[in-house]
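Chapter summary example.
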Amino acid sequence: MVKYLLTAAAVYLGAIGLALLFVPAQFGVDAVPKDASPELLALLRLLGGPMLGIAVLNWMSRTTSPSALRRTVLLANLVGFGVVAANDVVGVVTGDARDLARIFLVVHLAFTAAFAVALARRAPVTAGERA
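The structure predicted for these 131 residues follows.
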């Protein structure tokens, strides 16, 4: 299960990272003005880099054996997706988010739940894994 979860998260985050880098205005439809400043587009592109980095981390971790490091990757994803999902909830509930946020909310909540389950199912770290 963890292999497929990390693979799905890698593909999803990779797609978002590439979209932010190459088509930030189109990715930000209904959130980015049509006459967006070059500085805003540069900021959106800047956010694409870490997304790609996390995508690579997830991709490389998907086939590793259970370990403290793999649990760290799962926890980092839980925190990241959890914070984004919480932001989506606030935006949707207050009406401040774009309409597309409802779809992202479902996706982000699903990833958050899946990473929480994956972490809950992991066995405790052994002394050999701590090294």
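To summarize the output: The helical segments are 2-22, 24-27, 38-61, 68-94, 101-121, 127-130.
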